[in-house]
TrEMBL record:
Pfam families, alphabetized: Acetyltransf_1 (PF00583)
SUPFAM superfamilies: Acyl-CoA N-acyltransferases (Nat)
Protein name: N-acetyltransferase domain-containing protein
Protein species of origin: Nocardioides alpinus
PROSITE patterns found in the cross-reference section: GNAT
Length: 188
């Protein structure tokens, strides 16, 4: 764990600028080799930390204004209080059945990988989604994102099928992972 203590907590309005920076920097770094270059270049040219921060600020305000929110936004901070990771979870309605917990974003600062931050965020999001009555946990990841897939598999995620995602007009293959209720929280 590198001797570093990580605290996971709910995002606050003042986190928005740091979340925008973290999201844009780590997204561009993580997916550079995983998506077509034209799609990557389009993101790099058009997507700013300020625009991303604006979206996070709106989400944080929305969560604060809702009695039973459908979103969970948590941050990891290091001992100095710097934001080093984020996770966005959603309670997703599924037909007539109970709502499912879904991870829509999980990003850890590049220089903080492999220190357990991602695991702490994933587990905290699973717990927070369960507290909102979501059943089970699932997510979709680019099939080309081998490091993230290794991470989800190390955390016990089961491959439940293929999917696709549209990135700037490119239909990219995704892999769906799922955890049954409690299987993530019960683990190490
Ligand atoms: C995927 C990600 C969230 C993992 O976070 P992390 O803090 O590095 O993960 P942890 O330290 O908790 O890793 C736990 C275990 O997962 C596995 N794992 C994590 N990263 C891995 C990698 N790059 N390659 C292989 N296995 C990996 C290992 O088993 C690891 O345990 P170990 O370090 O003791 O071997 C992080 O790498 C990240 O932010 N990547 C870029 C963004 C991204 O792709 N996000 C997911 C798509 S939305």
């Amino acid at each position: 764990m590198g001797g570093m203590r990580t605290v996971v907590r709910a995002a606050r309005p003042e986190d928005a600028p740091a979340l925008g920076l973290l999201m844009v920097e780590s997204w561009l770094a993580a997916h550079r080799e995983q998506i077509p270059d034209t799609a990557w270049q389009a993101r790099a040219a058009e997507w700013t930390p300020e625009a991303s921060a604006h979206g996070w600020a709106a989400l944080i305000a929305d969560i604060a204004a809702t009695d039973v929110p459908a979103d969970v936004l948590l941050v990891a901070e290091d001992d100095s209080g710097a934001v080093v990771g984020l996770v966005h979870g959603v309670v997703r309605g599924v037909g007539d059945g109970p709502p499912a917990g879904e991870i829509s974003s999980l990003y850890v600062a590049h220089d903080q990988h492999r220190r357990g931050v991602g695991t702490s965020l994933l587990k905290a999001a699973a717990q927070a989604l369960r507290d909102l009555d979501a059943v089970g946990l699932r997510l979709s990841v680019l099939t080309a994102n081998l490091p993230a897939r290794a991470f989800y598999e190390a955390r016990g995620g089961q491959q439940v099928g293929p999917g696709t995602t549209d990135e700037d007009g490119h239909l990219l293959p995704t892999t769906l992972y799922a955890w049954s209720d409690g299987s993530l929280l019960g683990g190490d």
